[in-house]
Amino acid sequence: MWWATWWAWMVAGLVLAILEVLAPSWIFLGFAIGAGLTGALLWLGGSAMTGSVTLLLLVFALLSLVAWLVLRQVFGLKGGSVKTFDSDINE
């Protein structure tokens, strides 16, 4: 039952954070935060989640989604549009 140990989730979060550095796409960072928060919940005494893999994965998915939405709100482009440039640096 490796999925029920808090340190396995922390290691997974660290690996996903390293992947985010190597391939920046804002996707891995949301999953890394979700894995880290899931590990923190298990460490703080989430013994109710250790019996069910389904519940643990649901918590991970919800925390990852919330983390991704917060990252998008804080660091995303305002207005949801693509950034365009009106002038060229070579002009």
Portion in beta strands: under 5%
Radius of gyration: 17 Å
Helical stretch tally: 3
Beta strands, count: 0
Low-confidence stretches: none
Decide which structural class fits the backbone.
mainly alpha
List SSEs in N-to-C order: HHH
From the spread of the alpha carbons, the general shape counts as elongated
Oligomer: single chain
| Distance N to C terminus | 62 Å
Mean pLDDT over the full residue set: 85
| Largest sheet geometry | none
Helix content: 55-70%
Give me some keywords for this one:
single chain, 91 residues, mainly alpha, 3 helices, elongated
Write up what this structure looks like.
With 91 residues, this protein is an all-alpha fold. The chain contains three helices and no strands. It is elongated, with a radius of gyration of 17 Å.
